Amino acid sequence: MTVATSPEPVRIGIVSVSDRASAGTYEDKGLPALQDWLTSALHNPITFEARLIPDEPEHISATLIELVDAGCALVLTTGGTGPALRDVTPEATLAVAHKEMPGFGEQMRQIGLAFVPTAILSRQVAVVRGSSLIINLPGQPKAIAETLEGLKNADGTQRINGIFTAVPYCIDLIGGPYLETVEAVCKAFRPKSAVRPAR
């Protein structure tokens, strides 16, 4: 007889990088978009560590290290990934990396190109630091959801996989908690040997 277990709790860092929003010039929409999507996509109980910070590389790097050290298995950033002079999130992320995960950036640009040709200007990166996965996401709430979830056909079948499909297994491999996704939002892919029995 198998005993049903509850999903593991997970701590997730969400970081919005914006000079103007952090100064109060306009309302930040990145943090609510990240929190809403993650809450809808995961069965796991989530503790969010949210930060709204300016486009300063040292501040970004220090924030990422702080969140990893606080036990965040996953840290998602939004903003600061374009070619403008103040867009420094990728550099600040790479500065704290133990390993780079280039496939995430490649897939994010593929998703973006389904909508706009300027997606090639996006410089998002993903890295592993210790047993945490850090991913840079676009700045717009709609683009955040599309990047994480992917694109579906009119009949609901998946046309392009979102990057979150690969996130739970990546976190398994680096020693983090077992993330359980809501399949209607985003179905995680794991090899059969890595799938735990259904609750």
Question: Gist?
Answer:
With 199 residues, this protein is an alpha/beta fold. Helix content is 32%, strand content 20%.
CATH architecture: 3-Layer(aba) Sandwich
The profile of the biggest β sheet is: 6 strands, mixed
Shape: globular
Distance between the termini: 12 Å
Provide the β-strand percentage band.
15-25%
Q: Provide the CATH top-level class.
A: Alpha Beta
Q: Give the class from helix and strand content and strand pairing.
A: alpha/beta
Would you kindly provide a written description of the structure presented here, covering whatever features stand out?
- The protein has helices at 19-22, 30-41, 57-69, 89-94, 102-113, 141-149, 167-173; strands spanning 10-17, 46-53, 74-78, 99-100, 126-129, 132-137, 150-152, 158-161.
- The chain has one domain: Molybdenum Cofactor Biosythetic Enzyme, Chain A.
- The radius of gyration is 16 Å and the shape is globular.
- Helices cover 32% and strands 20% of the residues.
- The protein contains seven helices and eight strands, in the order βααβαβαβαββαββα.
- It is α/β, with parallel strands linked by helices and 199 residues long.
